[in-house]
Amino acid sequence: MEDSEIVAIGIVTVSDRASAGTYRDISGPAIEEFLHEVLTTPWRAVRRLVPDGIESVRDALIELADRERCALIFTTGGTGPAPRDLTPEATVAACTRLMLGFGELMRSESLKQVPTAILSRQTAGIRGSTFIVNLPGRPASIRTNMQAVFPAIPYCLDLIGAARIETDPARCKAFRPPK
Length: 179
What we know:
The chain is an alpha/beta fold. It has seven helices and six strands; from the N terminus they run βααβαβαβαββαα. It has a single domain (3-160), classed as 3-Layer(aba) Sandwich (Molybdenum Cofactor Biosythetic Enzyme, Chain A). Strand 5 (124-127) and strand 6 (130-135) form a beta hairpin.
């Protein structure tokens, strides 16, 4: 298979501590683990580890979408109410259209686990033919959120002209309307 047929998926870990090397990134690997479990399409991870902040996250998203040609980008971290949690603002700055239903569904699913999920501000959006999804920073929460929204992601990628991805229906049944 040629590299051009392998789908690039961006994974951006947003963390002051991890980007400074004082904390090991466990969130990015949790996203990769989920993707390895559910995707049957050949793909490669394009990783970035950036500090919290609008510019650092926005610039990473733009670079992954425009230069690396990622069909899909997941961010992890920076979605809470703390002053340095600016990932949603950076996502809005990088996107041309927002997909607010993704954030709504993720909060709804997370609220079944923990009442503080209401503090999450994650969102999703489109930049060209790239779909960007904010995820929380804890691996268990990442899995809960990805299980909730991933069934809609392959069809969203189809609609925006991104690379087509397929899932293992035994692990994640992607929805596409009948032809």
